[in-house]
Write a structure and sequence with these properties.
With 118 residues, the protein is an alpha+beta fold. The protein contains 3 helices and 5 strands, in the order H-H-E-E-H-E-E-E. A hairpin with a 5-residue loop joins strand 1 and strand 2.
């Protein structure tokens, strides 16, 4: 095949893939070319500070306490991790703010005294 034909085919395939990806990630769940995982998933993006028993504060990364490869974290899972960190004695309390991203939009979330508040 001549090189110009091959590059034209590559460009056409790349354009088709980009168009498929754009339509695949629109917020219409259950339609053709929609990936339901992202339409139904809940993501939590938070910035947390933990207070230790001796009064020191340090940043808390909740993703360090998820299983490898996990990245979807909803408010119930966040609360479970906060409970684990406070019960195990790592921190006396954890506070912070962030956002919850769902199929219904983006919402503010707060963590006050180790409790998730939507």
């Amino acid at each position: 095949m001549p090189p110009s034909v091959l590059s034209a085919v590559q460009i056409a395939v790349a354009c088709a893939l980009v168009a498929w990806m754009i339509t695949g990630f629109t917020p219409l769940p259950g339609r053709w070319l929609r990936w339901k995982m992202f339409c139904r998933a809940t993501f939590t993006i938070v910035s947390l500070t933990g207070t230790t028993k001796d009064g020191r504060t340090e940043p808390v990364n909740v993703y360090d306490h998820l299983s490898p490869g996990s990245f979807i974290l909803g408010p119930p899972q966040l609360q479970a991790i906060l409970d684990h960190l406070t019960r195990s004695g790592h921190y006396e309390r954890i506070d912070g703010t962030g956002r919850v991203l769902t199929a219904r939009g983006e919402h503010r979330v707060e963590v006050r005294e180790s409790r998730v508040v939507l």
